[in-house]
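Example 300.
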Amino acid sequence: MIAVGNGSLIFSSPLGCNLFEAQSTKVGFVNFPATTLNCRRSLTSTLTNLAPIKANGGSRMSSLKSGIEVNSNERAIINNSDDSSGSSVRHEISTKGKRSTNIVWHKCSVEKIDRQELLQQKGCVIWITGLSGSGKSTLACALTRGLHSGGKLTYVLDGDNVRHGLNRDLTFKPEDRAENIRRIGEVAKLFSDAGIICIASVISPYRSDRDAIRSMLPDGDFIEVFMDTPLGVCEARDPKGLYKLARAGKIKGFTGVDDPYEPPLNCEIVLEQEGDKCPSPEDMAEKVICYLDVKGYLNA
Ligand SMILES: Nc1ncnc2c1ncn2[C@@H]1O[C@H](COP(=O)(O)OS(=O)(=O)O)[C@@H](OP(=O)(O)O)[C@H]1O
Ligand SMILES: Nc1ncnc2c1ncn2[C@@H]1O[C@H](COP(=O)(O)OP(=O)(O)O)[C@@H](O)[C@H]1O
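Predicted structure in complex with PPS:
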């Protein structure tokens, strides 16, 4: 059954999108059908009942005229007359940056819309949030594998992995978690602007941090997926033994144990248990792929 509430899709029981009627192909541990991306038939009627979120295709700047305006991002925009060099003459002097002032946005003639045309897809961010052990990384892998085998360009930003490099300086204190999310959000935004389907799998326990990323992206391009796996299930899985350490007091401030997790209120997709059974990663990935397809992200 697929329940629709608050604009979210809640997948809670046997597949509403039966992609497996076609012959399937095994990719790693995940079976994907030859027609992985062809799920319109079964889901379109359900999804069209939702408030439409049209994939933001990106748009070219309309012809430029001289003038100055201030946009909602507190940027002064200086429009000079257009030129034919391929380099835009629209200058935005930012007044918003905390530390950088007098910086000017340089625009290039190859834009998101061109890259999307090249890739035959639309860039977006799939943000997978949930407790440690809820299945975020597993879903991210199944999803990237499914999309990749359907000819779509994806990139996964996994919280654990990013903390090995870009975010190696950050702890799990609330302010560092916020900075972790902010940086991952900014990187995801760049990938999305590149036309890539970027999959971020991070606990991201605070609603305000996730909402901040949503507000950075064009409407519809932030697709929040909540792994609604109960704490007891995550703790029973405990693949890294971290819950055990947290319960023993050896890790302080562990999400779900002695640190908060704020579930999304209005996310696009909720993936939850079917009774006491967890849907397979491939089933979950298919549901996300169906969503992308119906919303137009799998075409330019
Ligand atoms: N205190 C504490 N709380 C939660 N998680 C912890 C903690 N310490 C280490 N870990 C491990 O770090 C992984 C979470 O990193 P994230 O970057 O996704 O976390 S956060 O979004 O900044 O909250 C998380 O990985 P996942 O299990 O894949 O979620 C844990 O393995
Ligand atoms: N859909 C699923 N059904 C059963 N077990 C799963 C599922 N997804 C993940 N797991 C298992 O749960 C554990 C945690 O998954 P993982 O993807 O690492 O979670 P997270 O990234 O949220 O910490 C792993 O041992 C994984 O094999």
